Amino acid sequence: MANDEPMGLIELDENLADIEKPKEVPPGKYTGEVQSVEEKPSAAGNIYFAVQFRIPPDELPADIADQYEDGALLYYNRIIKPRNRSDRRALFNLRKFIEALGLDANTTTVDPNDWMGRQSRLMVRMGKYQGEERAEIAAVEAAEPKAAPRGAVAAKAAAARETNARGRRRSAE
User: Is residue 112 within 8 Å of residue 93, measured between CB atoms?
Assistant: First the structure.
């Protein structure tokens, strides 16, 4: 240990050998809230943000919700910290992530502390880690999809009606 203090005993309520793996969060879309953010080095030497999301129990299917009474915790480890302004892919991915958190991407500074408590829509899929199937976050999107402006929807519907009416008139001639 780094601080040279001895580690204490862990007292368990049941025999560790009797503990079974809980069911995984099934693939689907869930609303999750950022619980923690850490900078970590990747195997390739890049620094990335390990973002922990909590999916509340009421978002989970009923058959597994009781196994996650405090919610399911999943990590999203796909946001690389940009090294400089020429790191365009990392900058673009950071921008999309900031927008998915509902934060303003019109900025020249990013504070990962601002991510805490923010909600997003998580796309969860099954993946493998050390040979075991487990739930993982495949993508992070805005918590509520942005609705098209009312005028745009009305204009599109009117154009469709007009096209259909013209098509019917031509076929009737």
Answer: no
pTM exceeding the 0.85 threshold for the entire prediction: no
Please tell me the number of Cα atoms within 13 Å of 25 on its side-chain side.
Answer: 28
**15-52 pLDDT, tens digit each:** 999 988 889 999 999 999 999 999 999 999 999 999 99
Q: Note whether 57 and 32 are within 8 A (CB).
A: no
Q: Which amino acid belongs to residue 113?
A: N
| Token digits of residue 170 | 């031509």
Q: Look up residue 27 and give its two tokens.
A: 């693939």
pLDDT digits (tens, 9 = 90+) for 50-106: 999 999 999 999 999 989 999 999 999 999 999 888 889 999 999 999 999 999 999
- Is the Cβ–Cβ distance between 100 and 141 less than 8 Å? yes
Query: Can you give the residue ranges of every domain in the chain?
Result: 22-172
Listing DSSP states for 10-44 in one string gives PP-SS-GGG--PPPPPPSEEEEEEEEEEEEEE-TT
DSSP tag of 132: E
Cα-trace Rg, the chain: 23
3-state secondary structure of 143: coil
CA 141 centroid distance within chain: 6
Choose among 139, 99, 146, 143: nearest CA to 121.
143
